[in-house]
Amino acid sequence: MALLEIRNLHVALEDGTEIVKGVDLAVDLNEKHAIMGPNGSGKSTLAYALMGHPAYEITEGEILFDGADLVTMGADERARQGLFLAFQYPHAIPGVTVTSFLRTAINALRKARNGGEEDPVPIPEFRKELLAAMADLKVPRELASRYLNDGFSGGEKKRVEILQMALLKPRIAILDETDSGLDIDALKIVAKGVNSLVGPDMGAVVITHYQRILNYITPDHVHVFVDGGIVASGGSELAQQLEAEGYEAFIPAAEEVEAA
Length: 260
Ligand code: ADP
Ligand code: MG
Hints:
With 260 residues, the protein is of the alpha/beta class. The chain has 8 helices and 12 strands.
């Protein structure tokens, strides 16, 4: 069994509209997955369901993490188990530096892993880890002392997100990339982070509609996501097909007839 197993997952909105219509997906350590699909197909809804967002109801199916039922776990417990979900729209926090934000995030996780008792990371150890991660990911030193997301470019926000991922060392990271405002620089940062962090201790899923990310990341598994479901899965050769033909080739013919 894979570390993250999604089985026949159905997710509905509060008004009962079904958005995710039966998804099966298995993600393991040392694997890079890309979920790609057009806008409005339900990719973010899938990510929110994994996060346990209260507005998205799982109506059928299951999510298992390391064999345990993820659906009944709170957000803290999901993080404690080693699931990381990148914020799609991180907010600016005036007066909080990137360094103190990252330290707070680590300490929250350490507390959860320590049975709810505070267990703050010693400052010298934190500094050492932060500097090493920044060097690895080529994050400029000056970013650490700036206020979180205050006037940050898309690329700077992504650097912080990837830095957070590197420091929290999740077992499975899910990155839901915004469809708008994601420039090529930001994409390269995400791709570089994923490429360098995925290994024997981590697997990742990058969710995007942006086919160009495949120029920077080599996923082992590509899933085409259309109308609430995975309609095709394959290796990186699927990426080439997507690039050449777009999503149209994957939209079932019956739907095209219906839409016409
Ligand atoms: P994607 O990420 O693939 O662009 P989304 O999951 O964001 O797709 O959206 C899929 C559909 O669900 C869209 O029609 C969207 O308007 C709708 N939807 C998602 N979340 C909500 C919400 N909280 N309230 C109302 N509609 C929503
Ligand atoms: Mg989305």
